[in-house]
Amino acid sequence: MATVKVSPKYQVVIPRNVRERLGIKAGEDVQIFLYDGRIEFVPVRKAREMRGMLKGMDTRVARDEDRP
Questions:
Q1: Mean pLDDT value across the chain
Q2: Residue 33 belongs to a domain
Q3: Within a domain: residue 35?
């Protein structure tokens, strides 16, 4: 787990290992969410980059009787 310090301008640096694992590059957008008392940073991805992300996922889902 990485720890970062908030600068006097309220800025933080995302540690290199985290940036590399998430593929975050300089200048890219990151969404920030407050969730359950914590801050979450989520990289913004274009739909084209998400293509094939769920390949191999089991799409068989139990459905209600009134659904085809």
A1: 87
A2: yes
A3: yes
Q: Which residues contact 28 (CB under 8 A, 6 or more apart)?
A: 43, 44
H-run or E-run covering 42: strand 38-43
Count of domains for the chain: 1
Higher pLDDT pick, 65 / 18 = 18
Per-residue confidence (pLDDT) for residue 55, from 0 to 100? 82
* 9 within a domain of the structure (yes/no): no
- Alpha carbon distance 2, 13 (integer Å): 11
| H/E segment holding residue 22 | helix 16-22
pLDDT score for 68:
67
pTM above 0.70, yes or no: no
What's the N-to-C CA distance of the chain in angstroms? 46
CA distances (Å), origin 4, targets 16, 31, 43, 67: 11, 18, 18, 49
